[in-house]
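Interim report to the steering committee. The following record documents the input for 2-(3-amino-3-carboxypropyl)histidine synthase subunit 2 (507 residues).
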Amino acid sequence: MVDISSRYEIPRTAEFLRGRAYTRVALQFPDELLKDAAAVARALRAELGGGAKLFVMADTAYNSCCVDEVGASNIDAQCVVHYGHSCMSPTSNLPAFFVFGKAPLDISSCCRSLLDCSRESSKPVLVLCGLEYAHALDDLKRATVGLCKSDCQNSEIHYAEVLCSEMSPSSSSTAEEQCSQSNGSTHNDGLPAHNDDLATLVNSCCNVEGSTRKYNLGGLTWRISTDEKMDDYLLYWIGQDNSAFANVALTFNKCDIVRYDTAANQFSRDVSHLMKILRRRYYLVEKAKDANIVGILVGTLGVAGYLDIVEQMKNLIKAAGKKSYTLVMGRPNSAKLANFPECEVFVYVSCAQTALLDSKEFLAPVITPFEAVLAFSRGREWTGEYLLDFKDLISSEKPEVVSKSEEARFSFIKGGYVEDDCAQENEEHSETSLALAELTEKALSTRNQNSDAVLYQGGAKSAIEYLKARSYRGMTGEYEGPAPDSVLIGRTGRAAGYSDEKTKSPQ
């Protein structure tokens, strides 16, 4: 039987809530932990002794790793207790308390694997982990030190620490600043918690403090000397091959990386699948340069600064001579995005650990804000560095427009290198909207040759004209002429009795 009190840290959670006199608290669970939600709520209510109302939240509108401030605001919650895996993105309006859980870890096996990697590598080792394994880091440190002494081995092994377990709301501060605002609490079950070029953007998760450089990524923090670089370290990840690991591996893609699989109790050096993702992202950046109409997908309503980056993306796209539409639709999928065939590329504004949306099955590619900066900004070239957290891109600086007259580039649409004349660009500037509509219509007609396809017909200059010009308009059922063969007309009426059902006489 699962020890609810220990696994979900009931006493520590109750202490936090009592200390701040919260009376309306939202308990947020991911799908895989919902089975324990009722038991956790009962145990926490018993520990609090009454006086506080607890509400269980599930099926979040966006991503379960982010604090669901929208759902919590519907019940006027004063605080959110977040259970399970978290991206540790800073909140905007509500304080949050995090319970990461205690996933099992074979300390002796992990210790031997760590020392083997240290012996084989000439580099110092930096140990990172999923937050659900942070509870075991102290035991791992002690076991490693003891084994090193018995083997007379002098291994240079460094450990990351948990940044914090609670946050205070802020519209602009980073997760580290929010942690420092939380009444000085910097612990998690005994663990201490603590733009000139592209490289500057990528290293913005790093702060130089005296003779050390401090990094914060995915809820973890660590320090290295200013005389060293991250490339000088071997990264040893403890945990699953999930979004948190992808965030670390792509951000520090020039480092040697080893992942210890906690289920199989063995380590793996193979991160080739993530490097393939990186190469595909480069392809999407090049493809996005040819887009004329860009959709901005809002993938979060709670992460601090999301409105700032949305506005920055609008300005960036406008400065590049393109049109943009902002779309809020919850979790995006291919069916939802297919309702906007005018958009040739989408920019997904989301937290760092859900930003990489696989768009292979989509009609148009989906890129991150960082990739949008590369595609639409002037003089940006990809050096291999990568950034997933949009908060590190937020800037008050005016974006520089890509100058088509200064450089030739390869166009995926035209199939060769193109170089536009500056004078011609200025001459056609007044007709931008009409030109974009014509290009979009041409691209869509080329992409879809099926006469039954659900697409708009004719030219348009604005969003409402796009909608009116379509032959079929989705859920409203409004269309001109017969519905296409590919469209199945559903049942009408109420669930208690659809219009095509025979009325049953009461017995």
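Residues 107-270 form one domain. The committee is asked to note this result when reviewing the revised timeline.
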